[in-house]
Amino acid sequence: MKLPRTGTIEIAPSILSADFSRLAEEIAVIESTGVKMAHLDVMDGHFVPNITIGPPVIAKLRKVSNLVFDCHLMISEPDKYVEQFVEAGADHITFHIEVVKEAAELIEKIHGLGCSAGISLNPETEVESIKDAASLCDMILVMTVHPGFGGQKFMAEAAKKISEVREIVGSDIRVEVDGGIGPSNVGDVVGLGADTIVAGKAIFSHTDRVGAIRAIQEAATN
Ligand code: DX5
Ligand code: ZN
Fold it and tell me: Which atom of ligand 1 is nearest to the CA of 199?
């Protein structure tokens, strides 16, 4: 599966706040709403102080879902693991600029494996750091929380970088935003230029996941 073409607003539910004992059902429910992407948060306990899922879980989910798997690698050595993630069924791989010196090389490697590629910036990381490699990406991910946990408070200051990133990449590359997004602030990040919206708690803290996704979609487009 490929990232949706630019020109649309897409919601990418983050399964980090889903019920991990029922992941297949959770994925099926989000897929039933017509969203195209699932955001899969991979953490190594080193780049971030938390550990989540890796290739074996993604491979199992691949068997039960046709969603675009947007894999957000919050790991110290992404270069070592990209093959495994592609093998498991990743469609898009985002790595963090804070841990990669030769971003262009890693993007090329990911593309060579048949996957789209993205770079993410932590809240304190300058947009300048991605300037050279940005145009090679399919999507840039702006973090609006410190990566590591779901359900954190949205950092409005970090969101300001969305417009800077949009200015650099133009309209042919997706700009994704991740952390603390829900119906109350999604309009603001879309206004700044984001077109791909990650949401975890704002979806999975509600019994009615479908209604929660609709609420974000409505607030994003109105
Ligand atoms: C945080 C993750 C996010 C997280 C977002 O490190 O990268 O994708 O799941 O969750 P919410 O929407 O709850 O902030
Ligand atoms: Zn994420």
Answer: 12
Q: Is 13 in the pocket of ligand 1 (CB under 6 A)?
A: no
The strand pair at 174-178 and 196-199 is best described as parallel
Active site residues: 41, 178
Q: Tell me, what's the pLDDT at 161?
A: 98
Question: Residue 91: CB within 6 Å of ligand 1?
Answer: no
Mean pLDDT per block of 10 residues along the chain (222 residues) reads 97 98 98 98 98 98 98 98 98 98 98 98 98 97 98 98 98 98 98 98 98 98 86
Helix then strand then coil, % of the chain, to nearest 5: 40, 20, 40
Q: How far apart are CA 31 and CA 15, in angstroms?
A: 12
In whole angstroms, what separates CA 120 from the centre of its chain? 9
Return the DSSP state at 24.
Answer: H
Pocket test for ligand 1, best of 149, 184, 216 (most atoms within 8 A of CB): 149
Residue 53 sits at φ, ψ, to 5 deg, of -115, 165
